[in-house]
Amino acid sequence: MFPSRYMPCPTCGDSVERADSERHRCNPDRRVEFQMFALRDEVASLESEFRDFADTQRGRFEAWMAARCVRDARGV
Predict the structure, then answer these.
(1) Where does the pLDDT of residue 76 fall: very low under 50, low under 70, confident under 90, or very high at 90 and above?
(2) Bridge partners of 7?
(3) Is the CB of residue 25 less than 8 Å from the CB of residue 36?
(4) 3-state helix/strand/coil string of 25-53
(5) 20 to 30 A from 12, CA-CA: which of 36, 37, 46, 75?
(6) What confidence tens digit (pLDDT) does each residue in 15-71 have?
(7) What is the pTM of this model?
(8) 29 phi and psi, to 5 degrees?
């Protein structure tokens, strides 16, 4: 079996030739996309976890309090 000439960068996931690994600089946009990909399960579960929290007594109070704070800040 032959080793690949390319390896993924552990920071941004970009395919980097082994010989160029020292000179590789991560693209900031690529790095963010790679981090979001790594967190995809957590990001996907955020909405359902928030919905579950919002259905609790404390969640309803927090939503009411937030709406009140916004209303008070506007002077309504």
Answers:
(1) low
(2) 16
(3) no
(4) CCCHHHHHHHHHHHCHHHHHHHHHHHHHH
(5) 46
(6) 999 888 889 999 999 999 999 999 999 988 998 999 999 999 999 999 999 999 998
(7) 0.55
(8) -65, -45
> At 15, is the secondary structure helix, strand, or coil?
strand
Residue 14 token pair: 């970009």
Residue with tokens 């709406």: 67
Cα 64 from Cα 62, distance rounded (Å): 5
Q: How many residues does the chain have?
A: 76
- 10 three-state secondary structure: coil
Residue written as token pair 């390896």: 7
Structure tokens at 32: 């963010």
To the nearest whole number, what is the mean pLDDT of the chain? 92
